[in-house]
Specification:
Elements: E1 4-9, H1 14-24, E2 29-35, H2 44-47, H3 63-68, E3 75-80, H4 87-101, E4 104-109, H5 119-126, E5 139-141, E6 154-156, H6 160-174, E7 181-188, H7 203-206, E8 211-212, H8 220-232, E9 237-244, E10 251-258, H9 265-275, E11 282-284, E12 300-307, E13 310-317, H10 321-335
Parallel strand pairs: 1-2, 1-3, 3-4, 4-6, 5-6, 7-9, 11-12
Antiparallel strand pairs: 7-10, 8-9, 10-13, 12-13
Helix pairs in contact: 1-10, 6-8
């Protein structure tokens, strides 16, 4: 292999499909194995026909088969797109096997399983015990844009809704420009609910429709509050209402808060621009962004509007890329000592 071999967990879902696409175009990563319990032995191209040119011969492998290959490399990358609640156990199993084989492994988890440093808080939010609490201290959860470095060998990427909120909230809280309470309305595409059909994602129910769900009780709320305090040093109060939108991919988030101490919209915009001046994937735009400006890319777009002390921040991201696979590849690049933008700078198609 010419690059770092990647083991991909949860290989047949939507986020995994984006991981595979990004690996295929990354100059320093190569697919070592796409692990799928349900489709082991089946061609990758059967699950993802749009990736047939990139993976014409490769097939999904079982976890045991992937672990057997670990001894053939000195340093591997482990990416997890496994479901919440299932990822931790499988990640721990691969890391244990890598340790036993003397193989250095860099892991990035796109599921929720390593987003909380406290196993008790994870259990409270997700309703079941953490499957690998002994490994929690080895993971740091944050957006790459919000920390200059991490001390742990592995990383966890925040959720897609959380990513869109954190991008807008953290700089304002860090600059102490707002009163600390946020009211957030966000709309996500149907791919955010995963590949298994449900009543809320079935096309006749989703098409030409819009509805809210889990108002003020979505599991990303405690995640966002914890990560804002970690990144900005101040607690916030969050009132979050997610919505399901009639499109396949993307998240459009509107955040409402109050400026304090006579702060202005210009100061808020400057706070975002200054915070992200060295963040190549975050764009601060003069007008509210549109999903087609960023969908199918790793870019995020933010804007600020104010009337008196009322402040609105809009954020647009692709839920599968910036909110999952792309943000995770940013972490891989960072942890391997590669340029953070490597393999991720393709612009949006625009008319997707």
């Amino acid at each position: 292999m010419s690059g770092w071999p990647v083991l991909l967990l949860g290989g047949s879902g939507y986020v995994a499909g984006e991981f595979l696409r990004l690996i295929a175009q990354h100059p320093q990563l190569e697919l070592g194995g796409a692990i799928s319990t349900s489709q082991a032995g089946e061609p990758i191209a059967a699950a993802f026909p749009h990736l047939a040119a990139a993976f014409p011969e490769q097939r999904f492998v079982s976890l045991d088969a992937a672990i057997e290959r670990l001894g053939d490399v000195g340093h591997s990358v482990l990416l997890s797109a496994a479901p919440h609640g299932a990822s931790a156990e499988v990640v721990a199993r691969v890391l244990d096997a890598a340790d036993a084989a003397g193989v250095r492994t860099t892991a990035v988890d796109a599921s929720a399983d390593f987003r909380f440093a406290d196993a008790a808080l994870y259990a409270k939010v997700y309703g079941h015990p953490h499957a690998s609490s002994a490994r929690l201290a080895e993971f740091t959860c944050a957006l790459p844009e919000h920390v200059s470095s991490i001390e742990t060998p592995h990383a966890a990427h925040p959720g897609c809704f959380a990513t869109s909120m954190l991008l807008g909230i953290v700089p304002l809280v860090a600059a102490d420009l707002v009163d600390g309470e946020f009211f957030v309305s966000a709309i996500t595409g149907s791919t955010g609910a995963g590949r298994t059909p449900k009543d809320t994602t079935h096309h006749p129910m989703r098409h030409n429709n819009l509805f809210g769900y889990q108002a003020l009780r979505h599991r990303h709320s405690p995640e966002v509050c914890a990560l804002v305090e970690a990144a900005a040093g101040r607690p916030i109060r969050l009132n979050f209402v997610p919505h399901s939108g009639p499109f396949a991919r993307g998240i459009y988030t509107t955040m409402f808060t109050r400026l304090k101490g006579g702060a202005t919209a210009a100061e808020a915009r400057e706070a975002l621009e200054t915070y992200y001046e060295n963040a190549p994937f975050v764009l601060v735009t003069p007008e509210p962004p549109r999903l087609k400006d960023i969908v199918a890319s790793n870019y995020a777009a933010l804007s600020v509007t104010a009337d008196g002390d009322a402040l609105v921040v809009h954020a647009a991201i692709d839920n599968l890329i910036k909110g999952a696979a792309g943000g995770s590849i940013q972490w891989v690049n960072r942890l391997l000592g590669l340029p953070e933008t490597l393999g991720l700078t393709a612009p949006t198609p625009g008319w997707l």
